[in-house]
Design brief:
60% of the residues lie in helices and 5% in strands. The protein contains seven helices and two strands. β1 and β2 form a beta hairpin.
C-alpha cells in the first residue's frame, strides 16, 4: 500500500451506544493500526502510549550545556548565556513540558544516555588531543564557537536518536 493510500484510507467504528456504525474517520491521531498497546500516531509517527516524546528543540538546552565550556571560553560574558538557558530550561520543563517529564526522566536514567555523555566528553578531549598532535590549538574565540556548535549539534542529534530508540523499546514493552 502506498504512503498516500495509507493516509487517505478510512475506517468505520461501531457506535459505543447502539452497536451500529457511527461513521468514518481517517485514523489520524487515533493510534490505530499497530496492534500494540500505545501504538503510534498515524500522522506524525510519534508514540501515543504512556511516554510522550520530548520535542527535539528541547534537546538544544542540553546541547548548550554540552557546549558551555566553549561558550564561556569564546566570550567573557558567555556564562550569562548559560545561566539564562538553564533558567529557561527549568521553566519550560516545569510548565510547558510537564507531561513529557516522564520521557525525559526515562531518557536521562538510561544506560545509553550515560554512554552518550561519556562519549561526548571523550569526543571533546579527543578532538583537542588530535589538534594538539597536529600542532593546531583552539585558542581563538572563533574556534571555540565552532567547537560549541559542533558539540551542541552532536548532543541534539544523539539525544534525538536515543529518544527514538527508547520510545520504540518502551512501546514494545507496554
Amino acid at each position: 500500500m502506498a504512503t498516500t493510500e495509507a493516509v487517505t484510507q478510512t475506517t468505520t467504528w461501531p457506535s459505543p451506544r447502539s452497536g451500529a456504525p457511527a461513521g468514518t474517520g481517517t485514523g489520524i491521531g487515533t493510534g490505530t493500526g499497530t496492534g500494540a498497546k500505545g501504538g503510534a500516531d498515524a500522522k506524525t509517527g510519534t508514540a501515543t502510549g504512556g511516554y510522550q516524546p520530548v520535542p527535539v528543540w528541547f534537546f538544544a538546552f542540553e546541547g548548550l550545556i554540552g557546549a558551555s565550556y566553549d561558550i564561556v571560553k569564546s566570550d567573557p560574558h558567555g556564562w550569562i548565556v548559560i545561566v539564562v538557558a538553564v533558567a529557561v530550561n527549568v521553566v519550560l520543563a516545569r510548565t510547558v513540558l510537564r507531561g513529557r517529564l516522564k520521557m525525559a526522566k526515562a531518557i536521562l536514567r538510561g544506560r545509553k544516555t550515560r554512554k552518550l555523555a561519556v562519549g561526548l566528553i571523550a569526543l571533546r578531549v579527543g578532538v583537542h588531543f588530535v589538534l594538539g598532535l597536529v600542532g593546531v590549538e583552539a585558542t581563538s574565540p572563533a574556534a571555540h564557537v565552532a567547537f560549541a556548535l559542533l558539540m551542541c549539534a552532536t548532543t541534539v542529534a544523539l539525544l534525538a536518536f536515543d529518544q527514538k530508540i527508547m520510545l520504540r523499546a518502551l512501546n514494545a514493552d507496554s
